[in-house]
Specification:
The protein contains eleven helices and eight strands. The protein is an alpha/beta fold and 321 residues long. β7 (255-259), α9 and β8 (283-287) form a beta-alpha-beta unit.
């Protein structure tokens, strides 16, 4: 993805700050805006939010791919009212690589993160539709997430975010994507970035950490999902299994994960965290055995949650400190 100089943007910032005065930090401008209203969970704005603008979501195009629905390479940005240089949490949805959307189960997360003073960027990516020409295949999903990170690094200042403090979190297939982008430098390298572009990461609940150990007897159907989405790479079982990609000294950021599900799943998730520790990478885990796979996602920020919200917030506080 082409990268542009920020110097003109910074000059524009200085002019705008003078003009807006006490209104707050001025926007530095950014591409890819859509139109909408002020509901923070269901609308989009006509432009990037200035620091001080309250509760306005913007939808942006983080990349353009010929022949691909622009919505699939877009993200929703939820800025924080009255805050500049806020930490940024990126969220990658699940859906077996085939379905899902950046708006799914996002309301509670947006409120939680904004209330803590953090910008939320919820990311779409190309989906796999087996048998359809042009359907997303390896490495499209990973490259899209990496391109979204690059967009954030280059543009999030226009929305009150701090590009030096970015966390990348995801659930299910989104967790598999996050784990690959955060452990295999190749995806961010293609965007001109290092793994250090991520301050921390949170792949939440996937057997994809070790697709070999997941085995053929797969009650959740994940093997077939991985095969249809990633099987154009004949070595996908090993080359997209994050446990096998972990190595010391390559910049892998601190991580948070969950442990839940059937014993095999728990073993896979525990082994990934153990591989991180062996490589000297800080990590923490959440005991989510009381939750279903879907509840791991929907519990984050949900009123009354006693499992996911507090440890996720504590991890992010440490990450951004």
């Amino acid at each position: 993805m082409a990268r542009t100089s920020r110097r003109p943007q910074r000059l524009l910032t200085a002019v705008l700050v003078v003009l807006v005065g006490a209104v707050g930090c001025a926007s530095r401008g950014g591409p890819g805006q859509a139109t909408g209203s002020s509901d923070p969970a269901s609308s989009v704005s006509s432009g990037p939010a200035a620091c001080g603008q309250s509760g306005v979501k913007s939808t942006v195009a983080y990349r353009t791919v010929e022949g691909v629905d622009p919505d699939l390479t877009s993200a929703d940005v939820y800025p924080v009212a009255g805050v500049c240089d806020a930490p940024v949490v990126m969220w990658v949805h699940g859906g077996g690589y085939r379905i899902g959307d950046k708006a799914n189960q996002i309301r509670d997360k947006a409120k939680l993160l904004n209330d803590n003073g953090w910008v939320l960027v919820s990311v779409n990516y190309r989906l796999t539709d087996p048998g359809q020409p042009g359907s997303a295949q390896y490495p499209d999903h990973f490259d899209d997430a990496a391109a979204a990170v690059a967009w954030v690094e280059a543009n999030i200042g226009s929305y009150g975010g701090d590009p030096s403090r970015v966390a990348l979190l995801g659930h299910s297939a989104g967790a598999d994507i996050v784990s690959n982008v955060a452990t295999n430098p190749a995806y961010l390298h293609r965007q001109g970035l290092e793994l250090s572009a991520l301050r921390c990461a949170g792949p939440l609940d996937t057997e994809g950490f070790d697709k070999v150990a997941a085995g053929a007897d797969d009650p959740d159907g994940e093997q077939e999902q991985w095969r249809s989405a990633l099987g154009n790479n004949p070595n996908y079982l090993t080359e997209t299994s994050a446990t096998m990609l972990v190595a010391p000294g390559i910049g892998i950021p601190p991580m948070i994960g969950v442990v839940r599900g059937i014993p095999r799943r728990q073993q896979i998730e525990t082994a990934f965290l153990a591989a991180l520790r062996s490589a000297g990478i800080e990590n923490t885990s959440i005991d989510a055995r009381a939750l279903t796979h879907n509840e791991v996602n929907t519990s984050i920020g949900a009123p009354g949650d006693t499992v996911m919200t507090a440890p996720v917030v504590a991890f992010l506080e440490q990450c951004f400190r």
